[in-house]
Specification:
By secondary structure, the protein is α/β, with parallel strands linked by helices. The chain has one domain: Uracil-DNA glycosylase-like domain (Uracil-DNA Glycosylase, subunit E), CATH 3.40.470.10. Strands 3-2-6-7 form a 4-stranded parallel β-sheet, sandwiched between helices. A 3-stranded antiparallel β-sheet has the order 1-4-5, with helices on one face. The termini are far apart.
Length: 163
């Protein structure tokens, strides 16, 4: 089934890093925001790294991101996908990541998992001129990484500056 991404990237003039996912899960599409599956550890990892409480609603999530110079988006604008399975993604149309980077102060790009990095390298790398750094996925499917291990790995890679 062909599905189109329906929510905008989160960023502002203070954003310094961009974290890219592949495409919103069914739960994220239902909630109309990034990392909406209750078992996804994205918000817990960022809360742990920033010393903030885990955000509950969309406004709290946006506030956490922007306060700490973090932008989020997904590589894919539309695709054919079965449920939330990244392995089923076909017929990709990519978002304009290069346009976002040109219009911002973002200096580093990270991929939340292997598939986000693969898709970025295939569809966006040439136009952006920026490398992507792979982070282990916060998806519940990534059972190899505990929350503590994810947080430590992400913390070392992101090197977030105190606010």
């Amino acid at each position: 089934m062909r599905v189109t991404h329906t929510f905008e990237p989160v960023f502002d003039e203070k954003s310094k890093i961009l974290i890219l996912g592949t495409f919103p899960s069914v739960k994220s599409r239902e909630s109309a925001f990034y990392y909406g599956h209750p078992q996804n550890r994205f918000w817990k990892v960022l809360a742990g790294l920033t010393g903030e409480k885990v955000p509950g609603d969309i406004e709290e999530k946006k506030t956490l991101l922007l306060k700490h110079g973090i932008a989020v988006w997904d590589v894919i604008r539309s695709c054919e996908i079965e449920g939330s399975s990244d392995s089923s993604i076909r017929e990709v149309a990519a978002n304009d990541i290069a346009g976002l980077l040109r219009g911002s102060g973002i200096r580093r790009v990270y991929g939340n998992g292997d598939k986000a990095c693969q898709l970025y390298n295939r569809f966006c790398r040439k136009s952006t001129g920026m490398e992507i750094v792979r982070l282990p996925s916060t998806s519940p499917a990534n059972a190899a990484f505990s929350l503590d291990r994810l947080t430590a790995y992400w913390g070392e890679a992101l090197r977030l500056e105190p606010v």
